[in-house]
Amino acid sequence: MSLNYIEQKLAKTVLKNILQILIILIFNNFLAQKTPEKLPKNVVNDTISKKDTIVVKKESLDDILHTKADDQRRDVPKKMTFLNKNAQVKYQDMQIDADYISIDDNKNLIYARGKQDSLGKIIEPVITTQAGKKYETNEFSYNTKTKQAIAFNARTEENEGVITAQKTKKYNDSVFAMKNADYTTDEYYIKKKDTASDYFMRASNIKLIKTKNKSQIVTGPIQMYIEKVPTPLILPFAILPFSDKRAAGILIPSFGEREDVGFFLNGLGYYQPIGEHFDLKVLADIYTKGSWNIRPQMNYLKKYRYSGTFTADVGTMVRGIKGLDDYNKNSTYRIAWTHTQDSKSNPFLTFSASVDIVSTKFYNNNLNNNYIFNQNVLNTQQNSAVTITKRFLKLPITITGSASYAQNFATGLADLRLPQMNVAINQFYLFKSKTGVRQGLLENITVNTGFNLTNFASTQENELFTKAMWDKMQTGLKNNIALGTNTTVAKYFTFSLSANIDNALTTKTLKRRYDPIKTVDVDEIQKNIAGYSTFSTSASLQTTLYGMLKFKKGSAVEAIRHMMTPSLSFTYSPDFSSPGFGYYKNYYNAEGALTPYSIFDKGIVGSPSSGVVGALGFNIGNNIEMKVKSKSDSTGVKKIKIFESLSLSGNYNFAAKDHPWSVFSINGQSSFFNNKLSVNTSLSLDPYRIDFAPGATQGIRTEEFGHFSVQGFNVQLSYPLSSEIFGEKTDYAKKYPAKGEVRNENYYFDDDNYAHFDQAWTLNINANYAYSKGTSLLGTKIASVGLDGSIKLTPYWNINGSTHFDLVTKDLAYTRIGFSRDQRSFTINFNWVPFGQYKVYDFFIGIKANILSDALKYKDRSFTQPNAPF
């Protein structure tokens, strides 16, 4: 091929290319002459030249992404960034710290992984911090566009608890979904003192919901694990609120066995706050032999005004096997209401209530085991009262209105007082003082008076508010006027005078007769208005005498001091049984003897006294103390009370036709061993000889004076013992320098690795002995010893219990034994009553964390109890 041909061919190609470029330029110029259309948002106009435009993609990040690491690598084609060793990413309010982080720009994804060991196990977690809150995970993925995240083996702390989940998905800043998650409040686990929690609640699915003011966990079925061992405590659902406010929640029961009714769940229920001032708790007791009990309780509280509680127990007790002779079924109920008014809310008008009404056999058929452990089942009487009191700013009067209800389980009778009203006039002086300082008998005369109106009926429980009860209702009005005065005589004596006047009206009186057919005395209550007035006067003289017995120097006992307070008194009242008053009538008894009786007997206002009283009484009080040397006292002297009080009293009735001397009484009270041992004693002595006929068990009191036979004797002792009494605490920190870790941090160990700690214990000893004889040949004795104590076997193990032993019958009375174990974040309690009518054991788990006090109410608390949030 010739050179000329090649040159021609190249010239044609160049020309062709030039023509193509010119055509393109002309065409572009033509387009540039067109009126430009509205540009899209992602097209940027060049302010220098309107002929050029640049199309830019929208930025995928809303903020600057800050990264740092020991080793950073950028893969430009794949648009990936890799951070190794001490990697950190900061984006908006989030910070991620990990051993490895990758950033995928195409997928808008940040992936982080914790530090691994040689086997691939995560030894340091990924720490994600957002809005000031830290999260620990093994792996973490975050989408910067959707703001959603997925974490594996995440650890999330919420208030007093921590959640660890196998997989966590964050939908937004408010909602987190967790799979196979555990929740615990173990403080040691939260503070990473221990790698395993002592308990946790496990659920397959948990939703964590956060709002601005509070957050909460909502779960499906959730089960308790103790030391990684599953327990039968399973809830169908749970709501755990992380808030200081009250919240609804399930009440976890105790469980155990009772000999008469079988296995049980005691206290299973639900708690629901109602508004700002109320909360409701409904508990159920369920037994395997068919018994059941429902216990609703409503609390109310208005700060600085009042608070109260309504409670009820309604159930059915089933004992024995249906179809057999031992089978019985009883319905029981208890209704209680307490109301307390704040003393500062209204000092002139106060209202209080303490109502507790039960069925007659409630405590014999009790289904609430708490009444067994606190000995309420031993109650023989139940009392209720509602009281309203009105005071006046300028009037010296106090008006009190009340209603009361008393049940006696032994007799089956109920005493109802409805309504009652008492008007009390404040004490005042009858005469004014002339000098400003009251002197003499006249200026010191005081007057106390008031009125009391009562409506009373004693009836059977099934007769309440029926015609039978209203027929038994009695109305009584009483007025008492008490006058008193005193003055000093001869410097050392106090002379007192007093007078009492009683006035009474009643709507019913008594008529007594003897029925010869039935051979019994018959009492008939008649409806008619009657009244009486009585009066009595007394005068007394009292002084105080001191005596001191000193010992020679150097003796252990320095002195004995004796203080005596003798007093003499004279009391007079006429014989109100005389016919002139009309308060007494006569009837012929079984022997045909004319026998007096008061028409006010068995009445509501009481009866006037019979027989003239002109009695001279005496009382000698004593106080004896001893001073001894003591090295433990800074003064070198210690006072010991031999008798805090020792008194002898009696009287002689000058107007009595027979037995003018009364029974003499001696009462003493003292304490020993640094006031630890308390002793109270009383002794009754009859000064007249009692004769017994051959073979007779009941004696006759003669007029022969001077024998002083024991009619009654009683002594009560109480002695609280404790480990502190028997020595000082050992300073284990100085003696044993090695201290334990984790849960053993309260122990000190010696060189042989034996733990040392204080074993605190208490033991209260109560003893009682009572002997009463009267005019019987053989007296009756009551003697018992009671023990009540506790001992800490270790700082975390505690045993407590109480028992009573009857020294007369040689039988153990009520006995209770309790065990408690502190398991870091919860306690285990076990109570057992092994003897008596109710043999029962009860097992209970109590969570310490306040965050669960309302939701999973292991701690039975409401806002009416101390330190509870309201």
Automatic annotation (TrEMBL):
The molecule here is called: LPS assembly protein LptD
Q: Which domain of life is it from?
A: Bacteria
Organism (species): Chryseobacterium herbae
Enumerate the InterPro entries for this protein: LptD (IPR050218), LptD_2 (IPR045659)
Spell out the Pfam families in the cross-references: LptD_2 (PF19838)
Q: Where is the LPS-assembly protein LptD central domain?
A: 217-688
